[in-house]
Design brief:
- This protein folds into 3 domains: 114 residues, Release factor (Methane Monooxygenase Hydroxylase, Chain G, domain 1, Up-down Bundle); 155 residues, Alpha-Beta Plaits, CATH 3.30.70.1660; 75 residues, Double Stranded RNA Binding Domain, CATH 3.30.160.
- Helix content is 49%, strand content 20%.
- It contains 9 helices and 11 strands.
- α1 runs antiparallel to α3.
């Protein structure tokens, strides 16, 4: 066992050295110093948006360096402990090293995945939209199950979420929902969830207990920043205000504060009803529209490149994952072939391994 542990620690050391080279830790430390100087300048907060951007990036880089240095220290400690354990033939200490190797392996793998997220918008917050597709009331219920899965995933990682708009189905579930996920690399992480998710189960809405198949689509786009600026003339917009809808209670608005904006040239429709102020809802809806228009522009540019390359990759609506609850229990990703039989854990937000496999798959594609 001792030789195997030593070999595993050496492999982890190689992996961490590679990660350090990719991250360029020394460069990150220089950038942290520059950002700390900016953050200490009182005039920075004259522009709250710019200040938030600086402090957010500073926190993210500090976290990256701290993770790397912590792993380096733990790995060195494990190697020293292994040498001591071998010298003294200490079985208890060998057991501790074995536990350390298991924990370090997971942490280093997680940090390695983060180094794969180097796309233009990967560092940003994410805007997610879930829509019920084919399957009637089962599809609407499935869309609400997916919403819970992603909210639970975010909760497990201490990521903040904010629901902007929910369209409820008549019998059960939701027709669609749009929400924001705020965390470093939220977009880079969650963008691999984009596509169609298929559910097979005994329908709770079928009196004859028959098996039904239903579909829900997940769209993930990066949150726009001021530098993205897409000019949208007012005459291209139709703005409608209406009363917020949803489950009963004191939280339901009694005024026409919800806002729906239609971009006439593209037909893109966005809505927001989470604020009590019509002005706030309009501002949020415009931000969502900007994000969708930016994503549309990116897709159009990518389509031109793909056409030149002869790329025939599918659209965002391609089926990516199957969730089977009957006649057996399995969740399987159709791109990576990663699967698990623990369907209840997946639906409760334990999707880290699916996301990690997706990020690695995307990098290879």
């Amino acid at each position: 066992m001792s030789n195997e542990l030593k070999s595993q620690l050496e492999e982890l050391q190689k992996a961490l050295t590679t990660i350090g080279a990719v991250l360029d830790v020394e460069r990150l430390k220089i950038e942290i110093g520059e950002l700390e100087s900016k953050a200490s300048d009182p005039s920075l907060w004259d522009d709250p948006t710019s200040a938030q951007k600086v402090t957010s990036k500073l926190s993210m880089l500090q976290n990256q360096v701290a993770k790397f240095e912590s792993l380096s220290t733990k790995l060195s400690d494990a190697l020293v402990l292994l040498e001591l354990a071998l010298g003294e033939e200490d079985a208890h200490s060998l057991g501790e090293v074995e536990q350390d190797v298991s924990a370090l392996s997971g942490l280093i793998r997680s940090l390695e995945v983060q180094t794969l997220m180097n796309g233009e918008f990967d560092e940003r917050d994410a805007l997610m939209t879930i829509r019920a597709e084919a399957g009637g009331v089962d599809a609407a219920d499935w869309a609400s199950m997916l919403l819970r899965m992603y909210l639970r995933y975010c909760e497990r990682h201490n990521w903040s979420t904010e629901i902007y708009d929910t369209s409820y189905a008549e019998e059960a579930g939701i027709k669609s929902v749009t929400f924001r996920v705020s965390a470093p690399y939220a977009y880079g992480t969650l963008s691999v969830e984009q596509g169609t998710h298929r559910l097979v189960r005994i329908s709770p809405f079928d009196s004859q207990n028959r098996r039904h198949t239903s579909f829900a689509g997940v769209e993930v786009i990066p949150v726009v920043e001021q530098s993205d600026a897409i000019d949208v003339p007012d005459d291209e917009l139709r703005v409608d205000v209406y009363r917020s809808s949803g489950p009963g209670g004191q939280g339901v608005n009694t005024t026409d504060s919800a806002v729906r904006i239609t971009h006439i040239p593209t037909g893109i429709v966005v809505a927001c009803q989470n604020e009590r102020s019509q002005l706030q809802n309009k501002a949020t809806a415009l931000a969502i529209l900007q994000a969708k228009l930016l994503e549309k522009k990116r897709h159009e540019e990518q389509a031109k490149i793909d056409a030149l390359k002869g790329d025939s990759a599918g659209s965002w609506g391609a089926q990516i994952r199957n969730y089977v609850l009957h006649p057996y229990q399995m969740v399987k990703d159709s791109r990576t072939d990663f699967e698990t039989g623990n369907t209840s854990a997946v639906l409760d937000g334990e999707i880290d391994e699916f996301i990690e496999a997706g990020i690695r798959w995307r990098k290879r594609s």
